[in-house]
Amino acid sequence: MRKRNKVSQLNRSADHRKAMIQNMVISLFRYERIESSVAKLKVARSYAERMISRAKRNLDSALGTLDEKQKAEKILHNTRYLYSHLGSQEIVNKLLEDLSNRYATRLGGYTRIVRLVNRQSDNTEMAILELVERKTADELKEERAAKRAKAAAPKAKADAKPKKEKKEKKAK
């Protein structure tokens, strides 16, 4: 009997299940939409919503009554918690900077499951898990391109300076 056992096993070992759900949530935050079976998405949805709620704790409105030291401690704790559960600095930054602000006024229900037709090979119920106020694929591509350009700009400046110095030394 499965009394008082709320963990959905998904026919996997605990380590495999944890890694799979973590990867699904990271993909959800990165692409803001994923497709899988309904059973997996139900588990991933609860995990993702907990991560968004944790990220929202870092907003100023949630920390209004605390002094500066306590605010810093709470922000650090929440950031480390997210990093330990997601493992990707890029995703944690997106969660803290973009998603938490996007859902600041929403009390819950950050994701939705849209059911699709059953998979033909084994008749498994398929669905899409997406963020409610998500960005389009084109907007996400533009953001990534802007980040790459921003990251490449300091490297280009750093590379340009030593070349000028070498030319000056050769001229002497």
From TrEMBL:
Keywords: Ribonucleoprotein, Ribosomal protein. Gene3D superfamilies: Ribosomal protein L17 (3.90.1030.10). It holds the Pfam family Ribosomal_L17. Residues 163-172 have a biased composition (Basic residues). Transmembrane segments: none annotated. Residues 140-172 are annotated as: Disordered. NCBIfam families: L17. PANTHER family: LARGE RIBOSOMAL SUBUNIT PROTEIN BL17M, RIBOSOMAL PROTEIN L17. Part of the 50S ribosomal subunit. Contacts protein L32. Belongs to the bacterial ribosomal protein bL17 family. This is Large ribosomal subunit protein bL17.
